Amino acid sequence: MQDIDEEERLVNNSFKVDIIAEYGNTQEELILHWGISKKNAGEWNSPDDRYLPDNTVRFRDGKACQTKFLRDQTTTSGGAKAPGNLRSVHINFWWKEAMEPAVKSMSFVLMEQGKNLWHNNGGRDYIIKFE
Predict the structure, then answer these.
(1) What is the pTM of this model?
(2) How far is the C-alpha of 73 from the C-alpha of 75, rounded, in Å?
(3) Residue 12 gets which letter from DSSP?
(4) Count of C-beta atoms within a 10 Å radius of residue 6
(5) For residues 42 and 126, what is the distance between their CA atoms, to the nearest angstrom?
(6) Which domains are seen in the chain, by residue range?
(7) What is the DSSP annotation of 22-72?
C-alpha cells in the first residue's frame, strides 16, 4: 500500500480551469484579468499564490491578477513553427475543505493589451462558479 501524505489526503476539492481564446492578432498580447471569491460568487479578490500560473502579476488594485495567454504554435507546410490563432491559460484550484474556505467562483475579463481594449461580457464580467 502506498503512503499518502496527510495533507494531500485532506484535499477534497480540485478544479482545473482551461480558458482558450481564438485570437488572430499574432502581434498583440491577450491578457486574462481575474480574481476569485471565497464568499459570494462574482466578488473579486486576489487569489492565493498557489493558484497563480506562470506569466501572472498581481494587479495594482489588490483584487485581481493578470495572466498572459500562452500562444499555440502551428506547423507550416515547410515544417517551421509559426504562431497560431489559439491562446490558452490553465489554472488549478484546490483546497482542504475542513481547513480553509472554499473557492466559490472565478471572475474574469479579457484585455487586448496594446489597444487597452477590455472584453467584459457587457459589463457583467465572466464568472465560473465552483459550487
Answers:
(1) 0.81
(2) 7
(3) -
(4) 7
(5) 9
(6) 12-129 (2.60.40)
(7) E---TTS-EEEEEEEESSSTT--BPPPGGGPPSSEEE-TTSS-EEEEPEEE
C-alpha cell at 117: 481594449
Residue in 50, 59, 70 with CA at minimum distance from that of residue 108: 59
Structural contact between residues 7 and 95, judged by C-beta atoms closer than 8 angstroms: no
Q: What is the pLDDT along the chain (131 residues), one digit of tens a residue?
A: 344 455 555 556 788 999 999 887 777 889 999 999 999 989 999 999 999 999 999 999 999 999 999 988 665 556 655 567 889 999 999 888 777 888 999 999 999 988 889 999 999 999 999 87
**Of 12, 36, 34, which is closest to residue 98 (Cα–Cα)?**
12
Cβ-based neighbour number of residue 118 at 10 Å: 12
DSSP letter for 100, please.
S
Q: DSSP letter at 111?
A: E
